[in-house]
């Protein structure tokens, strides 16, 4: 019997061939996440991507659905409890974003140390001016919350700038590229040493509003905050209070509690804030990298019944 893979994201011919080469005996059907074909999904054993309104079809008791490969690293918007109850294997796209997001993180840090954000504004006003406060990354301390693929890549590049690197993770275990790693419970102790606080965390019950007044109050004056993880890990009101008081010198923000960020939101008008529209992970190599993860997992799935990479722990929600 032919088995079915349905991908709800566009793929090139080469990417389709890669999947089929790794999945002998399977068919591959391309769908549209915005307009999913429920009849096709009702026959799928494996689904790549997700779309609204497909839960009941895929999770029907008679469905052959067994494995979901997400197109994103975050899984907080999925019906995790129902997927777990059905015993669905869930793998995410963690690792796809490491290179582009690290570039954005360093873009933010270089913008602030070299005052490039004010230089752009001065250029628009044809104003030849520098206030002489330019600095550099050498010797600065980056505290990176999350020591996974993005955090580790950021720490690796930070060492090229001769920065000090402190990680924060659930376990506090040593990790490559980090001079020291604290547990999440030691976050306030860690951020007290930071020139840059970099949030790469997923959104879980444990990380909701993790960056709040207590954490920002523990920062040394003049630190910068960068969030490329998930918006709801940060209490926006507390962040703005820290920016307005001068406790934080600035913030580079790619994610927000409400997206798109409303046009009337005060963050838009803060000159010490640089905003990007949740695009830090975007890259023209994105689909290639997801397909690489999937094909490696497909080979393991055929051999053992279980993918080998990026298997989500439902208890941890990542």
Automatic annotation (TrEMBL):
Residues 24-311 form the D-isomer specific 2-hydroxyacid dehydrogenase catalytic domain. GO terms for molecular function: hydroxypyruvate reductase [NAD(P)H] activity. InterPro entries: D-isomer_2_OHA_DH_cat_dom (IPR006139), D-isomer_DH_NAD-bd (IPR006140), NAD(P)-bd_dom_sf (IPR036291). It comes from the Bacteria. The keyword Kinase does not apply. Its EC number is 1.1.1.81. SUPFAM superfamilies: Formate/glycerate dehydrogenase catalytic domain-like, NAD(P)-binding Rossmann-fold domains. Residues 107-280 form the D-isomer specific 2-hydroxyacid dehydrogenase NAD-binding domain. Keywords: NAD, Oxidoreductase. The keyword Oxidoreductase applies. Belongs to the D-isomer specific 2-hydroxyacid dehydrogenase family. This is Glyoxylate/hydroxypyruvate reductase A. The gene is ghrA.
């Amino acid at each position: 019997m032919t088995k079915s893979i349905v991908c709800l994201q566009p793929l090139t011919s080469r990417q389709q061939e890669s999947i089929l080469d790794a999945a002998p005996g399977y068919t591959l059907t391309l769908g549209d996440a915005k307009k999913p074909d429920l009849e096709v999904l009702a026959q799928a054993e494996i689904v790549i991507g997700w779309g609204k309104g497909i839960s009941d079809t895929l999770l029907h008791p008679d469905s052959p659905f067994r494995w979901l490969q997400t197109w994103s690293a975050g899984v907080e918007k999925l019906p995790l409890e129902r997927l777990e109850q059905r015993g669905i294997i869930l793998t995410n796209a963690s690792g796809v974003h490491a290179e582009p997001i690290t570039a954005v993180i360093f873009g933010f840090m270089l913008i602030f140390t070299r005052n490039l954000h004010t230089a752009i504004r001065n250029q628009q006003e044809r104003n030849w001016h520098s206030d002489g406060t330019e600095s550099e990354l050498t010797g600065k301390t980056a505290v990176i919350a999350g020591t996974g693929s993005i955090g580790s890549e950021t720490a690796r590049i930070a060492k090229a700038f001769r920065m000090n690197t402190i990680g924060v993770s659930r376990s506090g275990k040593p990790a490559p590229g980090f001079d020291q790693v604290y547990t999440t419970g030691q976050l306030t102790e860690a951020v007290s040493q930071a020139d840059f606080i970099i949030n790469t965390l997923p959104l879980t019950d444990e990380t909701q509003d993790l960056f709040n007044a207590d954490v920002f109050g523990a920062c040394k004056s003049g630190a910068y905050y960068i969030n490329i993880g998930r918006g709801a890990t940060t209490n926006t009101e507390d962040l703005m209070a820290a920016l307005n008081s001068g406790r934080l010198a600035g913030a580079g923000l790619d994610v927000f509690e409400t997206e798109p960020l409303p046009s009337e939101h005060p963050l838009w008008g803060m000159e010490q804030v640089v905003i990007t529209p949740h695009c830090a992970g975007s890259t023209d190599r994105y689909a290639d990298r997801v397909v690489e993860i999937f094909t490696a997992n497909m080979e393991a799935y055929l051999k053992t019944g279980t993918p080998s990479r990026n298997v989500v722990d439902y208890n941890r929600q990542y």
